[in-house]
Amino acid sequence: MLLMGSVQDPMIDYVDQLVLCVRTIGRVVHAPLTRSRCYNNLPGQHVALYYSQRASKGGLLIAESTGVSETAQGYPNTPGIWTKEQVEAWKPVVEAVHRKGGVFFCQIWHVGRASTYDYQPSGQAPISCTDKQITPEVLEDGTVEEFSAPRRLTEDEIPSIVNDFRLAARNCIEAGFDGVEIHCAFGYLIKQFMKDSVNDRTDKYGGSMENRCRFALEVIQAAIDEIGADRVGVRLSPYSNCLDCWDSDPDALGLYMIHAMNKLGVLYCSMVETEVVKVDGKVQIPYKLLRFRKAFAGTFIVAGGYNREEGNKAVSEGYTDLVAYGKWFLANPDLPKRFELNAPLNKYDRSTFYTPDPVVGYTDYPFLDLSSV
C-alpha cells in the first residue's frame, strides 16, 4: 500500500480554470473510457500521447477507470494508482495534458465482483457487498463473459477499502491530476453496495437506502477529507442495469445521493442517461436526468448517446452544464474544434476499442485538415 506525503496546494490554479470553463466556456468533456493499453497497470508514452492529442486549453478530460488497489482489478491492461511506480508513470501523462492547457481528473474505481480469480492477488475471490455471482452473459461476438464468485466483505473490512480510495485520491494529486472522479456507476463495487438487486446485507451497509449508500458516501467523504471538495467529482448511473446491478427505485436512489453530495460540497456530478433508443436511425435522448440536474448544487455533466446537436440542445435549454463524449472523442482527437466548425467526424471502430495495440484504434485517428474546411 502506498502512502504518499502530505498533499500541497498546487502552484497552478487548474481547478479555478475548471470552474471557469464549466461556467462560461468549454462544454465538451472527454468521458472516462477504459482502453486496455496500460500494460502491467502502468500508463506509458502512448497513453500520454492519447490524452495530449485530446487536450485543449480549458478543456476537461477525465482519465480512464484507474484501480485503487490490487483487489480493484478485473479487466486486462487497466491502470492503477496505488503504488509509487504507478504514480510516477502517471506524471508525464498529466504533464502532457497540462502543457496543452487541459484540466485533467482521474476516475478511480474498484470493480468489486466484476472480476475473476486471475486478476486477484493470490487468486483469491473478488470482494463485494455480497457473495452473489454475476450471471454469465453472451456477448455480441458469441463469447461468454463470466466473473468468479465473490466473497462478501465483513463489516470491519469495509473501512480499509474506504481508505484505499482515500490514498488513491492523494496519489492522484501527487501524480499531478487536478482532481478525481469517484466511479459510483454501472455495476462496480460502489454501485454494488448502492443497488438493492445486489446488496443483500443485514448490517449497517445494507437494507435501507441510507445504509446502501453509506459506503459510497464514506468513500466520497474520505476523498474530500484528503484533497478537498473542490477536487472531487462523482459519476452516477441510477438507471443502469449493468452487471445484474439494478434498483427498484432508481429515482429515489439518485436523489438521495444528489442531496447527500450537496451537503459534502462535491464539485461536479456526472450522470449517465437511461438506455438510449434509435428511431429512424437517429439516437433519441430520453432526457430523464432533469430532476437530478435541478437538485444538484454543483456542476452537472450528462453522458450517453449525445451528438453535437443534442449536446448543444441540452446545454442551451439548461438541462446540463457540460456534456461528456466517449466514442466520438475517441475517434476525433480534436472533437471540440470539429464541433465548433460543425465539421465532419471520423467514424469509430468498435473492434479496436479494447485491443492492446498502443497505436491502432488509439492514437491513429486523424485530426481535421483545416485547409479543407
Report on the architecture of this protein.
Belongs to the NADH:flavin oxidoreductase/NADH oxidase family. It holds the Pfam family Oxidored_FMN. There is one protein chain. A hairpin with a 5-residue loop joins strand 5 (137-138) and strand 6. It is globular and about 65 Å long. The chain has helices spanning 14-24, 45-53, 84-99, 158-175, 189-194, 209-212, 214-227, 250-264, 290-295, 308-316, 327-331, 335-341; strands spanning 28-30, 60-67, 103-109, 127-128, 137-138, 144-145, 151-152, 179-184, 232-236, 268-272, 277-279, 282-284, 299-303, 322-325. Helix 7 runs parallel beside helix 8 (250-264). The chain has an 8-stranded parallel barrel, surrounded by 5 helices. Strands 4-7 form a two-stranded parallel sheet. With 373 residues, the protein is of the alpha/beta class. It is built from 12 helices and 14 strands.
Structural category: alpha/beta
Summarize the biggest pleated sheet: 8 strands, parallel, barrel
Spatial separation of the terminal alpha carbons: 51 Å
Say how many strands there are: 14
Spatial shape: globular
Number of continuous helical runs: 12
Task: Name the poorly predicted regions.
Answer: 1-12, 19-25
Strand neighbour order, sheet with most strands: 1-2-3-8-9-10-13-14
Helix percentage range: 25-40%
Mean pLDDT: 92
In terms of DSSP E residues, the strand content is: 15-25%
**Helix-strand topology string:** HEHEHEEEEEHEHHHEHEEEHEHEHH
Please tell me how large the radius of gyration is: 19 Å
